[in-house]
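stuck on this:

***
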Amino acid sequence: MLSSWAAQAHELDTNKFKSKITSAKTAVQFFSSISDSLPEFVPTKYISNNFLHKGGYTVPQSPIIYAKPETVIGFNFLINDIDADGYNRDSVNVFSTRTPFTDINLVIASKKEQSFNTIFTANIKPQWNIAFKLLRANGEGFYLKQNMVNNNLWIATNYAAKNSRYQLFTGAITRTLKRDENGGVQNDSLLRENIFANKKLFSVKLQDAKSKRGIRQAFLTQQINIGSKLNADSTHRNRYRLSVYHDINAIRSFYTYSDGNPQSGYYQNVLMDTNLTSDSVSCTVIENKMGFALNFGDDFKWNIGAGYKHQYVETYLQSEKIFFNNYIAEISSMAGGKKLSWNINAAYVLSGYNKSDSKILSSLYYKLNAHTKIGANFNYSRQLPAYFFMNYSSNHFAWQNTFSQSTFADVSAILAIAEHKFLVTAGAKYFYNFTFLNADALPMQYNQAFNLAYINLVKNSNYKHLHFDNQISFQHLTDDSVLRLPALIVKSSLYYQGSWFKNALKVKAGTSVTYYSSFYGNAYMPSLGTFYLQREIKIGNYPFADVFFCMQSGRLKINLIYEHVASGLLGTDYFISPNLPAFDRWLKFNISWTFLD
């Protein structure tokens, strides 16, 4: 896909964007206002996310939906795949502000879990903006060996010449998640028989294991706009006939794992060092890309573009260095009018390690009337499995495989009726040569085709000040031998929302319940930092209930939430991965303050 910033950053120059903070990342989000539900303290608001964080930041949760790991064309190592809260380039915003903007967000919770999140942006000059965003979280968890520290920071700056002929966007990202790995509780029956006991007294499977994962990233995009403006009227967008851009992106991702007792009996194999496990894997990718976009139209905006990217890769496995190259061609087309819009992106690897890998992402939306839109999405890819499945070496696992390309397709239709706060998405996913970790946490490829049918419903309603928001997902696998997911996922919120004291104080208070049906959830392997297949323990079929009270006065927001309030009262099977229970009830206090000068 063409750089989203390069294709759209010129929108920052229009008058309507000058008066407030705005992001140039304007991907199709027709339905974002439909699910404006209660505030939460982690960015997992919708059930489309893999991680509901019922274990806080410290407990990995078995995925409850399928999220394709190969999200981009080209090389993919597949490390950091469970770092759901980590910053990446897509989370870096382009801003233009009249006055400095600061937002400070603090969360204090049980078990010494704290989270501090702040964002700041200001225009140094009318054409030059700087911004940064910081997140730091830490906690000790309810069980032994669950200490965690999560650090995230991005800084960025963007510049646009007065005539918008030249634009620049550059930034850097760093994120690190350090965590004790306890391998789960030693005996599940301890929880079931001693639900109200001090969980710190329960024995765990690993006593001296730790993991660390993260990324370091820097990027720079430049764009030159050539040709006459399609609109000379200052009240309209200033759009150019030709935009040429150059993008450089360098990213290093890593995962380390250590265990002072590798012969504890937890691992099936000890391959190198019987006294100390000290595994390290990292991947450095440097991308250099050039491309162009042709923009047309007035009432109906349309652009077509193409790009060429060179991808240089270095992987490090236990100090062994391996080099790769990829040469990738990309094309795209985006269009939008009052009624119809579409988006098509395609990429193909011309040569290199991932030669002949291909991907197509497309969407089409039509506005039936002021309140109703319909749409369709089609995604297709044929790619080599992530390098992690092909080659890996550590103290407890080692393999070399020559898997074939995997085929994935996803077709869906969407209906949104904003007036009734209703959204339905129905579709099917197709898999062939699906790659996974088996019950021994070893990679395998399933050389048969299977399908996943799904329906996602969002229906929000209210009567005066009483609101009832619902999200429901139905999933059906034609073959669950290599992929297992719950058939039903439900998230419902019932709450009061209103204004008190002559509209001086906005209040939201109520309850939220999350539920998914029982299934053989994937188990977590700490030394690999990812999940593997198992068919011995079922998880799910347990309602997680929270209560909350939120209030806002001006730019000050204060939220209280009591999570998992029915812990122990609705049974004890609240495991979110085999041997890994969710947290007990815990109280969170959140304060957020926004400054506009």
Q: What stands out?
A: The two ends are 37 Å apart (CA to CA).
